[in-house]
Amino acid sequence: MIVKLLRPSATFGGISYNTDKIESDKGELMKVENFGALQALEHLKPRDYVNYLEARSATSARIKYPQFHAVLSCKGKSHTKEQLTELATNWLKGMGYEKQPYLLVFHKDTSNNHIHIVSTRIDENGKKINDSYEKIRAYQVLNQLMDLNEKKQIDKDIERALSYNFSTKPQFMMLLECQGYSLQQDGDKYKISKYGLQQRTVDLALVDARRKTYKQDVDRLAQLRAIIEKYSKIHNPAVVPVSKPVPKGMIAKPTGYTSDLAEELSAKLGLQILFHGQPGMPPYGYTVIDHSRKHQSVYKGGELMPLEKLIDPTQFLANNLQEPKIEMLESVDADRDIEDLPAQSVEHTDTTPAFTGGYEATFFLPEISLDLAEDIDDEAILGRNRQRKRKARTNTR
User: Fold this and answer.
1) Dist CA 216 CA 171 (whole Å)
2) Distance from the Cα of residue 219 to its chain's centroid
3) How many CB atoms neighbour CB 329 within 10 A?
4) Residue 87: CB atoms within 10 Å
5) What is the pTM of this model?
6) InterPro entries, alphabetically (predicted)?
7) pLDDT tens digits for 328-358?
8) pLDDT tens for residues 147-178?
9) What residue ranges do the domains of the chain occupy?
């Protein structure tokens, strides 16, 4: 999560900037607060908000730059507009702007969801809102808010992972690793880390107890096969490489694979496909995570269908009469994709939480090089590899 403080301004150009976004269907007005009787009127124009803010700011002739304009941006679509609105409201409270007139406008025109905050630095008594160490406080307030949310989210993610139907310990690890956690077995516990710190431990006995209850849902697997066969006719199942962004002039090395079919299944049905293989080499196995509320299971790819059939593009080609188009997918740089506005920025790094209302299209984690040949037990291989490395295979995003 990033908080970006835009340069103070003598005018309230932030109002017109954001209302232009709304009019072009690139933004949505989420909240208007503390504008007094103005809020009771209908069909307000941008100038009405500007006039109100200018009148408030005119009570102090000493302040040359009364506009307060900030942006809170998350990574990708990890936070909804409602979540960002709640976060921005609490952040304003921490910054001393809770009673100030302000607008919150959600923007949806970039790869990263973000919300703009426009207010005035002058309070109702004509005094300036405290801006001492403003950049540092902006980070501190956001960090505190995110930390509180993160602790709750971590507990929720662990509880959710243990509720899934899985047959091996590595499958339990994948449920958390694909959300940015790293796991390391230490005696009879798993150490679970995130944000560079150990966050929790989970008793291995809990994982084993859940693993032993695994039952293969034959009917669901048959349903999934039918779904994949149907969707593979309209969405290309051929795998394409995924790579991390690199500086200009450098060649990006593939770190994993995905496909149009896999992305569609994830986005529309919550069916997550993780391809396994060494970076730069074709995948030779896969795991399926069914996030459907009624099923919530992890399957070895071999339980569903052979990899060769899953990624075979012949049905798609026969249905569309065209050659597959293989392109390198670009990864999103969450720290840069807001608007190109001059700004002072403060960053709070987090990782996209999954399992929080809906499914994201990019569930594929090339950083996790899981060694899962279909004819070899995945628990034996992952256990052996993790033991050799003395650390968990993690998603380091």
Assistant:
1) 14
2) 32
3) 16
4) 20
5) 0.52
6) Endonuclease_MobA/VirD2
7) 433 333 334 444 333 333 444 333 333 333 3
8) 766 678 889 999 999 999 999 999 999 999 98
9) 2-131, 165-331+354-397
Tell me which residue of 119, 132, 124, 122 sits closest to 6, measured CA to CA: 119
Task: Tell me the C-alpha distance between 16 and 47, whole Å.
Answer: 8
Whole-angstrom Cα distance, residue 286 to residue 303? 10
Instruction: Quote the pLDDT of residue 95.
Output: 96
Beta bridge partners of 114: 73, 107
Q: Which backbone phi and psi does 49 adopt, to 5 degrees?
A: -65, -40
> Which residues in the chain come in under a pLDDT of 70?
148-150, 195-196, 244-252, 321-397
| CA distances (Å), origin 45, targets 19, 50, 51, 258, 343 | 9, 9, 10, 46, 27
